[in-house]
Specification:
It contains 16 helices and no strands. By secondary structure, the protein is mainly alpha-helical. The chain has two domains: 175 residues, MFS general substrate transporter like domains (Growth Hormone, Chain: A), CATH 1.20.1250; 178 residues, Up-down Bundle (Growth Hormone, Chain: A), CATH 1.20.1250.
Length: 402
């Protein structure tokens, strides 16, 4: 029995090229230092003495910067190459974070936070474009799933370590966050000496891999639905913790434990789950993922207790696992070597817009109508997105080996 389980996991991770693992290592190292943004509001209000409104403006500045960074990073990928964009992003992010810890003026801090959004978000289209280049279509979803797993593992480290550092010295957060970005940059310096020019395909002419899916006319619709999915997920950093605290009576540490279930499930099950579904058309799986995502949030107000809350987290987590890695691969497969970076940039823009507008819309519904209306609205949106993805799926077959 144990050997069979080991075989299943070995098969799920097998076949990925060396550079795919290295790109995921870059994500892990960089995300393991992700702590400044988590503690930014506390830093600005408790340490720097700014108002809560000013702290909110600072978080908004990061969102605006991230929006521009996703678009700019995608454009530059097609012109400079994905590796160059990632190197530039990590270098500027690392230096900017260290400098930010020494700024005292609110105007300067706002400018640095805006630039941090630009620099940090530019990494994502670069990393995704590079992963698509390294992985042929039959294992592309596997590459993106590994990348997400590495990022989630890193995020479990950053906030926890950041909490201890903040109790000791807030400036240490900026140093550690910045140095991990520079450490990720060092990985590129050691292992990535060069890359193909943006217009050169990385797949051998005689490769048995299936050709990428070329339906670029559907990409605007996919980006719109990515935006809708982002609206649901954006509640995790706005209305969701507030509701869980008030309705379930959970303290901050209990909420943290609840959200940790998401990361654990992704690390343990995502690669195996997607590998088991490789013969099903990806958009059909994404449709099921969107439905589960909306359902998980819609179920939230219908029960109480930690076990029930954990069940709802598991539902939307499986929705996340079925949608996000396959969406990234689907966009990559609908792009060419010359415009893939731009399309990955628009993928980032769609999510960035959702993370900017979603908390505002969610808070408005929460306050002016009711929390129940918000969570049921998330469920309704999930149903609409599932129908949209299912319509685009048509009669397409599976995505090959992942």
């Amino acid at each position: 029995m144990i050997s069979k389980v080991i075989s299943v996991y070995r098969d799920a991770y097998a076949g990925l090229p060396r550079n795919a693992w290295l790109l995921s290592l870059v994500q892990f190292v960089n995300r393991s230092g992700s702590m400044v943004l988590f503690f930014l509001s506390l830093y600005l209000t408790r340490k720097m003495g700014f108002t809560l409104a000013q702290a909110g403006q600072a978080v908004g500045a990061f969102g605006f910067g991230a929006l521009g960074g996703a678009y700019l990073g995608g454009i530059l990928c097609d012109r400079l190459g994905a590796t160059a964009v990632q190197r530039l992003s990590l270098l500027l992010s690392g230096l900017n974070l260290i400098i930010m810890g020494y700024l005292g003026s609110f105007a300067l801090i706002m400018a640095a936070i805006f630039l941090q959004g630009v620099f940090a978000e530019a990494l994502l289209p670069g990393n995704a474009t590079a992963m698509a280049r390294e992985c042929p279509p039959r294992i592309r979803t596997k590459g993106f799933a590994l990348n997400r797993l590495a990022a989630n593992l890193g995020v479990t480290i950053g906030p926890v370590l950041g909490g201890y550092l903040a109790m000791w010295n807030y400036r240490a957060l900026f140093w550690v966050d910045g140095l991990t970005s520079l450490a990720a940059l060092a990985i590129f310096g050691v292992f990535f000496k060069s890359e193909p020019l943006p217009q050169q395909p990385a797949i051998e002419p005689n490769s048995p891999d299936p050709p990428p899916s070329r339906h670029p006319r559907h990409l605007p619709a996919i980006f719109l639905m990515v935006f809708g999915l982002g609206l649901i997920f954006s509640q995790l950093f706005s209305t969701y913790p507030l509701y869980i605290h008030r309705a379930f009576g959970f303290a901050e540490n209990r909420i943290g434990q609840l959200l940790a279930i998401n990361t654990v499930l992704i690390v343990v099950f995502e690669m195996v789950l997607l590998n088991g579904l490789k013969r099903i058309a990806p958009l059909k799986i994404i449709a099921a993922g969107a439905l589960l995502t909306g359902l998980g949030f819609a179920l939230t107000p219908l029960g109480r207790g930690f076990l029930y809350a954990a069940l709802t987290v598991a539902v939307w987590t499986f929705g996340e696992m079925l949608s996000l890695p396959l969406l990234t691969a689907e966009i990559a497969n609908r792009s060419s070597e010359t415009n893939r970076g731009r399309h990955m940039g628009w993928f980032g823009v769609s999510f960035s817009l959702a993370w900017m507008l979603g908390p505002v819309a969610g808070s408005g519904i929460y306050a002016h109508f009711s929390p129940l209306a918000l969570w049921l609205g998330c469920g309704g949106l999930g149903i609409l997105l599932a129908l949209g993805f299912r319509r685009l799926a048509g009669g397409r077959t599976g995505h090959g080996e992942i």
